[in-house]
Specification:
Layout lengths: L1 E7 L2 E10 L4 H13 L4 E12 L1 H16 L3 E5 L3 H10 L1 H4 L1 E3 L2 H4 L3
Parallel strand pairs: 2-3, 3-4, 4-5
Antiparallel strand pairs: 1-2
Helix pairs in contact: 1-2
């Protein structure tokens, strides 16, 4: 799992590359929590290069969304592939989270 971040205006974009599973979720959680601890309030997680997401990855997204909502922030996700779209629909996450087709759309462009 590779995690990279960059700024797009007032939004921090997190790119996930690989699998978000039991083995990789702790590293992703550490990265995301360090962003939140640093005061990031608008987070966009781009799934374009994510090949797999497990229940531990979904729990991370839910926990992150709750933390951001509690502090008046916003979590968005974008560019879900077919596998991630199916997981989000079956789990109900597509109704819970702000899901966008593309990064440009998620950033309001």
């Amino acid at each position: 799992m590779e995690i990279s971040t960059r700024d797009e205006g007032d939004t921090k974009v997190v790119m996930l590359n690989g699998k978000l599973d039991t083995n990789t979720t702790p590293a992703a959680e550490g990265e995301i929590n360090s962003l939140l601890d640093a005061g990031v309030s608008k987070l966009l997680i781009n799934f374009e290069h994510l090949s797999y997401i497990s229940s531990s990855g979904l729990r991370l997204l839910l926990a992150t969304a709750k933390k951001l909502k509690a502090s008046g922030g916003d979590l968005r996700v974008c560019s879900l592939n077919e596998m991630a779209t199916e997981v989000f629909e079956v789990s109900g996450f597509s109704a819970i989270l702000n899901v966008f087709a593309s990064e440009q759309e998620a950033l309001g462009g």
